[in-house]
Design goal:
377 residues, PH-domain like, three-stranded antiparallel beta sheet, 12 helices
Amino acid sequence: MYLLLLSLGVLGYYLASKKLGLGNGMSCTTGIFFAFIPYLLFNHFVGFMQTIVVFLAIIFILGYMSQNSAKKNWAKANYPFISPYKLAEDLEKAANTPLENEVDPMTYEALADDLPYNRAQAFASGSKLNAEDQDAIFPIFYNAHPADNEMAFREYGYLVLTTGIIYKKQVEAAKEAKEKFLVKEVEVPFANIYDVSRTNTTVMINYYNGETKQITSGNEREVIFLYKIIRAAIDNGWTKNCTTILHNLAKVQMSDVDGITQEINTKYEIAKQQQQEVQRIASVDDVDHVFTEEQEKNLAKTNQQILDRATDTSIANHILGNSTGESLFQKHQINDRFSGARGHGHAGELMGDTMDKLSLRRRQWKVIVTKSMELIE
């Protein structure tokens, strides 16, 4: 009898300490309750029932206190502001760090080169977590595939974005339904998650406002992976700061878009004016004559300006004619005539240079995000 009581006491202590995460004091108290259950059952039935009620009340109170403590700690914590790219690095590191007693852990790569962007966008279509017009919102991990038992091209699995997780699984429809299978979708925004826990088949997510969500899967590896991702997002402060970070990045992006749009419009107007000038020149039959005439006008104007400013006769003579009788300006004019830009080739070169200035590259956006994070920090 005493051995049975001792065994039940040890069992109670183990469940309280390992499964509920209680301290030594509360775990010992739980072990004592477990030890007295059979004694009260066989000797004092009423006392046994009272003990059960008290025991359940204690468990409920302790669970509530534990959750409330985790919520307070999360709310008080001062996490650093990080970029979405730093988040991706942290999630990859967490995904590849094995849990205790994790069997045959897999390897995961964030922002993989072979990540199917179009499929990921189709998977996230209609979700509030996805926004294609914001560069700070992008896929980090994607693992979804069509089911073998249906013809419809629907993918099941998960997509991890900077805003949260989209999870889809196949479920059987009701007998009277037209389709045999349906899609059960769960969206888990990162914002305001303060705690996460798991079993072998379920991930339980707790939000600061009291809301809870669950992701249930028959694949334990999938459950472990999603648990690691959410836990890492909590630990680095992303679940607390992501709303502010993404909002500020969106504002900076729109500001830069406005600036780039204005720059494009300005350069377009310049290019348009140059195009009109080129068309005017190209429309003249004798293009060489037009360029020669323009050059002579410019040279004459320059000669006159220098003569007006020159006070030394020798300087004026050197400029207008040296000992050989050849003017420096005449030499410049001849060189320009035979080796300078001229004719339709000049016009094409001018337009090509202008069009080059109008080209923009998408990699500018990564610079925008980097500068934005410097401003936020």
